[in-house]
Amino acid sequence: MTLPPLEETLAQIRAGKMAIVVDDERPDAEGDLVMAAERVTPREVNFMAINARGIVSVAIPERRMRELGIPLLPASGTAEDAEQVGASVESRIGVTTGISAADRATTIQVLASERSGPEDVVMPGHIPPLMALSGGVLMRPGRAEAAVDLVRLAGMRPAAAICSILNEEGEAARMVELHEFGKTHFTPICSIR
Fold it and tell me: Whole-prediction pTM value?
């Protein structure tokens, strides 16, 4: 199975739609749904929660994590390439319980906004931020870095809504299932490589 050209994925992101990011094209590769955080609405959050089934998160550059005052959670593993997760956050204004699709979309947009600062978020919340290293996939070939790189290449602010795709058994979907998901939902697949 060949993947579509990168330009097709970038066009999808520019249009406010989602793309699937995979580690590589191996049969056991896992994938995430990705879209520009600034374009997220409750509809997309709900789609991710229902169809992708993973945790709806937001990937932001490490500099943005510092600007917002979001601390990193301590890692229990020792893998140097492990994803770095920040304390879960919530928008200070415009949310109720924080768990609804509308509340989570509001929080994602606050994290993406250049006008937001540490006073605009509270912790704990319902959106875990994933820290993308400076230098993107050239620094670490992770899906958080790929998500931020994709939205940046598409001309959007460097913040991406991201959600792992699980199969019906609740396991990480693999390449055959990811291709089927992409065909069903008209979503292109992009490899980090």
Answer: 0.91
